[in-house]
Specification:
It is built from seven helices and two strands, in the order ααααααββα. The protein is mainly α. The chain has a domain of about 150 residues. α1 crosses α2, α5 packs antiparallel against α6 and α6 packs antiparallel against α7. The N and C termini lie far apart (about 50 Å).
Length: about 210
């Protein structure tokens, strides 16, 4: 039953996220649907590829594309690259609600991880997924209030907060399938990269303000 819940909850997450994004965007329904659909497809594809690459590099595991899970950071990186390419071509597109949409969808998506029974904590089976889900929902509430602020400020603020949270939550996870290097998980290394990248941008942004 837990296996059936995963796609069901992901479907709910995707639907609710789109409805929220469309509600706070001035673009047409078709424009929002096309952008959102491409973003979801690219994010899921890159999340899967990232998972397969990690297993190949660190465990020499032979996993095909229909097996195993996903890596959120892989999906995030794919989604960000698509956003930058899309934004460079159509900077007049209304991205209001983009970051709270990401937080909301991710928050619900972590419940799917819990239903699937993966990524439990290393200490007494701490449900790290539910802890992260709650934190992401609180982030959604915060970014919902700030959704009309500078878009790139919100993106880097999100990366700053989430990378800090994710780095620390990784210490509670027991998820070796997603890779470790020098006693830190791959997600922690990515978190460190995003933390320093976003810190640099935010410091410069604050100085200019």
């Amino acid at each position: 039953m837990s296996i059936e819940f995963y796609p069901f909850i992901i479907g709910i997450s995707t639907t609710i996220s789109f409805l929220y994004f469309n509600r706070y965007s001035k673009n047409s329904l078709i424009e929002n649907l096309l952008y959102f659909s491409f973003t979801i497809l690219i994010s899921f594809f890159s999340a899967k590829i990232f998972f397969l690459l990690i297993n190949k590099l660190f465990y020499q595991a032979s996993i095909n594309i229909f097996q195993g899970g996903y890596v959120f950071y892989g999906g995030l990186i794919g989604g960000l690259i698509f956003f930058l390419l899309f934004y460079s071509k159509k900077s007049d597109f209304d991205f209001s609600g983009l970051i709270p949409t990401l937080c909301l969808g991710h928050s619900i998506g972590r419940i799917a991880c819990y239903a699937q029974g993966c990524c439990y904590g290393s200490l007494s089976f701490i449900p790290v997924q539910l802890v992260e889900s709650l934190i992401l929902f609180l982030m959604f509430l915060m970014f919902h209030k700030w959704k009309y602020k500078n878009l790139f400020f919100l993106i880097f603020l999100y990366l700053f907060i989430y990378s800090l949270i994710r780095f620390n939550l990784e210490f509670l996870r027991a998820d070796k399938l997603r890779g470790f290097y020098l006693n830190l998980s791959i997600s922690q290394w990515i978190s460190l990269f995003f933390f320093f990248l976003s810190s640099t941008f935010l410091i410069r942004y604050i100085k200019r303000s």
